[in-house]
Amino acid sequence: MAEDIKNSGEFDADDALRAFLKSGTLEWAKNQLQKYIKLMAYYRCAMMEIETKFNVLNEEFSLRHDRNPISSIKKRLKSPVSIKNKLDKKGIPFNLDSLEENVNDVAGVRVICSFLDDVYMLADALLQQDDITLIQKKDYIAQPKQSGYRSLHLIVTVPIFLASEKRLMRVEIQLRTIAMDFWASLDHQLHYKKEFEFTDDMAQELKLCAKMSAELDERMDGLRKCVQRDISWENGGEKRGSPE
Ligand code: 0O2
After folding, report:
1. Cβ partners under 8 Å of residue 182, min gap 6
2. Quick check: 73 and 54 in contact, CB under 8 A?
3. Residue 134: which residues within 8 A CB-CB, separation 6 or more?
4. Which residue has the higher pLDDT, 176 or 66?
5. Amino acid 236: pLDDT
6. Closest residue by CA, ligand 1 atom 22
7. Ligand 1 binding pocket includes 104 (Cβ within 6 Å)
């Protein structure tokens, strides 16, 4: 029976598998996969380097100022599907070279800061380090996106030191306050990259929430300045305890 089907010219899975193995395609695919896994491991190392740098800055600042500028740090490696979608959108073929060259955010580190000023202080402190090179800076705090999204984005290269080579890896760093993160996280769940069409009213509402979160940041920063400079809130910024 099996012979009959083969002779009839129909598809035979065993034959196809044998031909596939013989052609060396499997070896090639295995090799590509190993290279991909290795590259992703390098990106993970780069994220660890960046995370350590921020942890060091946080530690040093907390010794000097008795508070932590960093609330939390999150890391993520872009999924193969997201990488492919990004390259497709740009009309670039999916391979390891094009990936490294054209996708800046394979490795992503998000630094959630306590206050607005901390965002810029930490960004400046990182960029001053002599092994960090800035590739691109997008300040969506100074100029929020149409959606209301706010964050400071940096694309940097950081070296990773392997047993026999040094490699410069690109990492996207998103710095934002707790209020910005609150808005962005909920927007991500409700709206960002979702099929559901937001009406104009809903988009306006989302923007209003972003505006409220920006106001919250400013007000909290005002309080921080009072505490830091030991000035009175009620008397419009006068030094506390100073004569009337
Ligand atoms: P995910 O799921 O966070 O990984 P480029 O990277 O320069 O080619 P792109 O992708 O337009 O261009 O960069 P952009 O817009 O500067 O930054 C993209 C990232 O910022 C997104 O990553 C999000 O993390 C975040 N982001 C940008 N706009 C919004 C927004 O309106 N809402 C929310 N919640 N996040 C936003 P990814 O890869 O798109 O997604």
Report:
1. 213
2. yes
3. 127, 154, 155, 156
4. 176
5. 59
6. 105
7. yes
